[in-house]
Design goal:
The protein has about 700 residues and is mainly α. About 75% of the residues lie in helices and about 0% in strands. It contains 29 helices and no strands. It is elongated, with a radius of gyration of 32 Å. The relative contact order is 0.09.
Length: about 700
């Protein structure tokens, strides 16, 4: 084993030596007039050594990105220890940059395309059917030659940013060396900066932003000011290049304008939370944010000059921006023709469109005071009463002889109308909470500094509040649904003189709760539907705000003529504020009601199990057995109900949290520290995860209906 490892290490060293030797050969210098052109590949090819180098780094079949990272680090260490090698690589890189067109690379790579989601998707699909002709004069063609594997972006993404920064530090050298590297491409970098700045400058004329109101409109002029500042910087830069004695105005003013435009974007995002947003607006906001980052990076690189007193700090900031820009652009070019990646980005933007609305709703499901906590108990207990009635109606319906489509339709109505009534009465179904509260937690993670002790402590407070609110909602549902079901079945049996639930139906209900049967997979299906209902609610809440549904409903002539203008306005206002809740609950009911029928039609074991309905069904089964159920069977069924609830909650919470983090682009890095603090808090004050401590502040949002 040791001999094999030594042989492998030796072979790797030989491969690295061979890859670096490729840079030792001659390379043509850039044209003296600064123009770009393609080096004749028969004489020299500045791309070929980079192809060989990254072929060495790329993971082989059966290897992981960690193997590529180890070889990447070996290359960096070798260049750091051998300045001659670093100079050879730097010379080839300068030649490559000086002999290719770079404007499109700097202005477009890593930034969402202006064509929009569906147009870009059509381009990718068409390119798969009939490949595009590459332009060898563009840097993107060279990038495609170097990173010629479709999955190269995966291992590139795994390279730590600090390791990539080390590479650029050794290639960039001091400020004078870095300027030599930038010199052949500065005109194209400047042109790319202007292209991106003028794109941003036209943002305020987009019709989509007219809906954001006066608060945004008063600041939109800053986008045009950014374009003017970029032009002023470019004019001054070119004058200084033409006459080095001319005054040089650095990039400070332009960077200030970039910061101001980022503030405007934040205002636009906040305004969109109130007025709603569209997929196009979400797309524009993300694209503009990427463009502002690109302008700042290019400005810092162009602002470097020899003899600057703050050259060291400015060089590091410029290198960090350059490293991020190149890494982002290389990955984007590698994934440029990926349908899967493009669709994934589109889904991420659609998720971002709805998650903020769900996050605001989730705040209403977190009890911050004792009054809110006991209010959650009351609202959950009220829902338990109605759930017991809904479960009984479904049992009666299942006894009828109907076609499959009729069962699906009636079950969907029972669940859908029942959930809507629960929502309108401001009651709470416990399993609807995780899909909403996960969005709130993700929103907090996006704002908090994940390594800061105070922020982690506040996150623990938030999780504890979510846990105790969820505990109150679950017990409130179950504690009422089960005894109410017993009371309904026993009372109806006493009134009619016949058992409402016969022994066969009771056995079926009990079998559905078997934890070793299909109960838990079916509970996972319900968890997925719970997650989807949260997405649906966020989507329709956003849609109602963006479409100004309230004002439009109030203008319906037939409605105003029937109930009067004032009531029509109130109805419109109610629908605008509650459309998401109404649609999410009704469609959730339709999903629950039709799942079993769809499973029968497809011949698949698809069905749902929901903790509140399962607890009610346990009560009905108990009456069907004449209260003669063995305690072991009762305990086993109780375990089944508990596990069903756990699966319901965990699946819906995990999916909602994953979507919210993906939509916001958040990578939570403080898992270990957070778990440690949660463990300490639970050991020191476990009651805080189940009840509100008396010392808790009274601030917080009152629980809203489900």
């Amino acid at each position: 084993m040791a001999g094999a490892a030594a042989t492998s290490t030796e072979a790797s060293g030989v491969a690295l030596e061979r890859a670096l030797d490729a840079f030792a050969g001659p390379v043509a210098e850039p044209p003296p007039d600064g123009s770009t052109g393609v080096v004749d590949d028969r004489i020299t090819d500045p791309v070929a050594p980079f192809v060989a180098l990254f072929d060495y780094i790329r993971p082989r079949r059966g290897e992981t990105p960690a193997d590529a990272q180890a070889r990447y680090e070996a290359v960096v260490a070798r260049l750091e220890s051998e300045p001659v090698r670093a100079e050879q690589v730097r010379r080839h890189l300068a030649t490559l940059l000086g002999t290719r067109r770079l404007v499109a690379f700097f202005a477009d790579s890593g930034i969402l395309p202006a064509t929009g989601f569906f147009t870009e998707l059509g381009r990718i699909v068409a390119g798969r059917l009939l490949p595009e002709l590459p332009d060898e004069r563009e840097l993107s063609h060279a990038v495609g030659r170097v990173f010629h594997h479709r999955a190269d972006w995966r291992w590139m993404e795994a390279i730590p940013p600090e390791l990539t920064l080390r590479l650029w530090q050794v290639l960039g050298g001091d400020v004078a060396t870095l300027l030599q590297l930038i010199e052949p491409v500065r005109d194209q970098m400047l042109e790319a900066l202007l292209v991106v700045a003028y794109r941003v400058g036209g943002l305020d004329v987009e019709a989509e932003f007219g809906r954001l109101g006066a608060e945004y409109a008063g600041y939109a002029v800053r986008f045009r000011s950014l374009a003017s500042a970029a032009q002023h910087f470019a004019d001054g830069y070119r004058a200084h290049v033409a006459d080095p004695g001319a005054a040089f105005e650095d990039e400070a003013e332009l960077l200030v304008m970039v910061d101001q435009c980022e503030e405007v974007l934040q205002r636009a995002r906040r305004a969109s939370l109130r007025s709603g947003t569209s997929l196009r607006m979400t797309y524009l906001l993300r694209r503009t944010g990427q463009s502002l980052q690109r302008i700042a990076t290019l400005a810092r690189l162009l602002g470097l000059r020899a003899g600057d007193d703050s050259a060291r700090e400015r060089r590091r900031a410029a290198l960090e921006g350059w490293s991020a820009l190149v890494g982002q652009s290389l990955r984007a070019e590698n994934r440029r023709h990926s349908v899967r990646q493009h669709v994934s980005e589109g889904v991420s933007m659609l998720a971002l469109r709805v998650t903020d609305n769900a996050a605001r709703t989730g705040e209403h499901y977190i009890a911050g005071s004792r009054g809110e906590y006991f209010g959650m108990w009351r609202s959950a207990m009220g829902a338990g009463l109605l759930i017991a009635a809904m479960a009984l109606i479904k049992i009666f319906t299942s006894a009828a002889s109907l076609p499959l489509a009729a069962y699906a339709f009636l079950y969907s109505l029972i669940y859908g109308i029942g959930f809507v009534i629960i929502y309108m009465l401001h009651m709470t179904v416990a399993t609807k909470q995780p899909a909403m509260t996960a969005q709130t937690i993700a929103g907090y993670l996006g704002e908090a500094r994940q390594t800061r002790a105070a922020d982690l402590e506040r996150l623990v407070d938030l999780i504890a509040a979510v846990a105790r609110t969820q505990f109150a909602a679950i017990l409130g549902n179950v504690a009422v649904a089960l005894p109410t079901a017993v009371a309904f079945a026993w009372g109806l049996s006493a009134m009619t003189g016949a058992p409402v639930i016969d022994r066969a139906k009771a056995e079926h209900l009990l079998h559905d709760l078997d934890p070793l049967g299909w109960a838990l997979p079916h509970a996972a299906v319900a968890g997925v539907f719970l997650f989807l209902s949260g997405v649906i609610s966020g989507y329709f809440d956003n849609k109602a705000s963006f479409a100004r549904l309230g004002a439009r409903v109030a203008r319906l002539r037939w409605l105003a003529g029937t109930v009067g203008d004032e009531r029509a306005a109130r109805i419109g206002d109610y629908l605008e504020r509650h459309l998401g809740g109404l649609a999410g609950n009704f469609l959730f009911g339709c999903m629950l009601g039709s799942a079993g029928t769809v499973g029968i039609i497809l011949g698949l074991p698809i069905d749902i199990r929901h903790i509140a309905f399962s607890s009610a069904n346990l009560g009905y089964a108990l009456v069907g057995y004449g209260f003669a159920l063995p305690w072991q069977s009762l305990a086993w069924a109780g375990l089944g109900v508990t596990l069903i609830g756990l699966v319901n909650l965990s699946v819906s919470f995990a999916l909602a949290l994953w979507m919210a983090l993906k939509a916001r682009g958040i990578a939570f890095t403080g898992k270990r520290a957070l778990l440690g603090r949660l463990r300490s808090r639970f050991v020191q004050a476990p009651a805080g995860f189940f009840v509100v401590p008396r010392a808790e502040p009274s601030e917080g949002a009152a629980p809203a209906g489900d």
